[in-house]
Amino acid sequence: MDNAAAPAFSTLPLPDALLRGVDALGYTAMTPVQALSLPPILEGRDLIAQAPTGSGKTAAFGLGLLHRLDPGRVSTQALVLCPTRELAEQVGGQLRRLASGVPNVKLSVLCGGIPLAPQLASLAHAPHVVVGTPGRILELLGQGALELGGVRGFVLDEADRMLDMGFEDQIRDIARHVPRACQRLLFSATFPDAIRALGKAMLRDPAEVSVQGAAHAPAIEQRIVDVDPARKAPLLAALLLEHRPESCVVFCNMRRDVDEVAGSLAHYGFDALALHGDMEQRDRSETLLRFANRSCNVLVASDVAARGLDIDDLAAVVNYDVPSDPDTYLHRIGRTGRAGREGLALTLCTPQELKRMEAIEDRLQRMLPRDRVQAAEGRPKGVPRAAMQTLRIDAGKGDKLRPGDILGALTGDAGLSVKAVGKIDVLPTRSYVAIARAQAPQALARLREGKVKGRRFRVAAL
């Protein structure tokens, strides 16, 4: 479905308040998954949908949940389960923007990896919408802090990954706390037998929607690079030097390889960071933030850790290892070439991985072009650097700091132009600001010497 043929959101029976939220997100016409799933969702039907990352599924289930919401009733009326904290925060942010035109809607993101006390305090007055991870939701239910008896809409987002992470029993336990009559929506990038069994157990006569993944879109150039297993790291560096993507995610099959590959790329001069499940939650969040604000141009990640990655214009994906199954391949490369942009997907393939690659080509129903590349030697020249550098300020919302305060300090006493200042993220106890790389030393020195909102805070360059 191209944009010319895509129906407008105004053709749906949505109130003006929600259409204003659609406008706030910059949406004009519906994506295929939205056009197929929103009519049955708005009719109140249960739904099981196969849709790749970046297809617009959050707006699809979000509009359905918010459409059924009664802001005047103080109770939790919608629950969204996500596999990771990063994805939950991403979904929560999108739902808040969708609800921006509806007064008095309270939304809480409840995830593990952060202190429990503030979340307990936030539940003193029940939020209308809860987005969270299964473990923390069960913990709050066990303490009697969260009541789900008034839920009208229950969503499992990226259900396949939640099952991969071992959350099936927790999901089923949570489902027992939700009214049987509530609407249930299951979204998954893949449809293995375990997902079908879960859908059969939890959903009532669901409508089924399937949207082809971005792997079939001509906007993604897919290529296989034949490599010697002993030379993979220098060959990866050479590939990145050849294609010079502005932003790139490199996927490794094994968590233990992530740090090694990121370290190798850093040795060659790339601004590369690692992301995997063994990292502390704060470090994972900081890494994702730096990648999103363009302070890092290569992210080396495991599949699970990258689930919360929210980059709409990712230039390239590299499979450092051939994925173990075609579904994982489709999900990985679906992160590039979004919203009509061109994307690049490169897969390093050793002789031992040819069978896996053939299975992927069978799924695609075509042979992919093969390339060879000369390995990088020594420390190559002209390695592209990230456009920005991140400064961390040890103060945040708890200090009543706002993005405007940081921008004012940088463009005032620090003497930077507005164009040199990138994304500003203010979190509960810390703030992060991206600065054009050439101006970052000046900004760091001036912030350390000066004040933000009349106070001195510790500032560090990352």
Automatic annotation (TrEMBL):
Write down the PROSITE patterns for this protein, in alphabetical order.
DEAD_ATP_HELICASE, HELICASE_ATP_BIND_1, HELICASE_CTER, Q_MOTIF
Q: Where is the DEAD-box RNA helicase Q domain?
A: 7-35
The record places the motif (Q motif) at 7-35
Listed A to Z, the keywords are: ATP-binding, Helicase, Hydrolase, Nucleotide-binding
- Give all residue intervals belonging to the Helicase C-terminal domain: 219-381
The terms describing its cellular component in GO are: cytosol
UniProt cross-references to InterPro entries, sorted A to Z: DbpA/CsdA_RNA-bd_dom (IPR005580), DEAD/DEAH_box_helicase_dom (IPR011545), DEAD/DEAH_RhlB (IPR044742), DEAD_box_RNA_helicase (IPR050079), Helicase_ATP-bd (IPR014001), Helicase_C-like (IPR001650), Nucleotide-bd_a/b_plait_sf (IPR012677), P-loop_NTPase (IPR027417)
The EC designation for this entry is: 3.6.4.13
Pfam families on file: DbpA, DEAD, Helicase_C
Alphabetized GO MF terms: ATP binding; hydrolase activity; nucleic acid binding; RNA helicase activity
All copies of domain Helicase ATP-binding, residue ranges: 38-209
By sequence similarity, the record places it as follows:
Belongs to the DEAD box helicase family.
Q: NCBIfam families attached here? A: PRK11776.1 (NF008744)
- What's this protein's name? ATP-dependent RNA helicase DbpA
